[in-house]
Amino acid sequence: VLEYRDLQDSIKPQKVEFHSLNFNSTLHWQPGRAREARDIVYFVQYKVYGESTWQNKDDCWGIQNHICDLTIETSDIREPYYGRVKALSAGVYSDWSLSCRFTPWRETMIGPPTITVLHSNKFIILKLQAPRSPYKRKRGSKIPMTNYYDLLYQVFIINNLLDKQHKDLVYEGKDKVIKVEDLRPGTSYCIVAKTYVPLLDRSSGYSSRQCTVL
């Protein structure tokens, strides 16, 4: 009995948590102490907070990965969800390991906008595009994150002659097309942008750098 309990405890998944970016939501976990056990497989269930029955996630039933995509299952973004995972090794099942409560709308991280740079010899025109969710409109295009949040764009410019680490904020607002003026011809500039959600006081990381020489 002790050996059985030991194995049960040692394979029990650890640190079960949701990770979410633009509503692409996955459940992650770490293996238990018995890392050398080769034949461990995992089983994932989920439910909406307040419901009594757990649902099996068929794609994550008897898997060897430590990650399970629950994007579709958590698509009602204002509902709170739970996930849980158990392990099986040598015919022995662990107990379930439970995630914290996860509400996609409140907890998803928002990605940065994508930037397109058009330039003349004295100014730069930027086109910004909001990150997109995985959820689709009836016509098939992915719904932008601006449908779910009041988003602001923060645009920063880097003068490569002066200091490649120093970023000057040149714009904050909702416009999708921005003109950055008073720039020096012949100078190399890079642009990065962030998405900011005022209601949640949360910023994305920086977009990838778009660089241009006037």
TrEMBL record:
Entry superkingdom: Eukaryota
Subcellular localization: Secreted
Keywords: Disulfide bond, Receptor, Repeat, Secreted, Signal
Pfam families linked: Interfer-bind, Tissue_fac
Domain Fibronectin type-III: 12-107
GO cellular component terms given for this protein: extracellular region; plasma membrane
GO molecular function, a single term: cytokine receptor activity
InterPro entries given in the database record: FN3_dom (IPR003961), FN3_sf (IPR036116), Ig-like_fold (IPR013783), Interferon/interleukin_rcp_dom (IPR015373), Type-II_Cytokine-TF_Rcpt (IPR050650)
PROSITE patterns: FN3
Function summary: Receptor for IL22. Binds to IL22, prevents interaction with the functional IL-22R complex and blocks the activity of IL22 (in vitro). May play an important role as an IL22 antagonist in the regulation of inflammatory responses.
Sequence similarity: Belongs to the type II cytokine receptor family.
Name of the featured protein: Interleukin-22 receptor subunit alpha-2
Organism of provenance: Hemiprocne comata
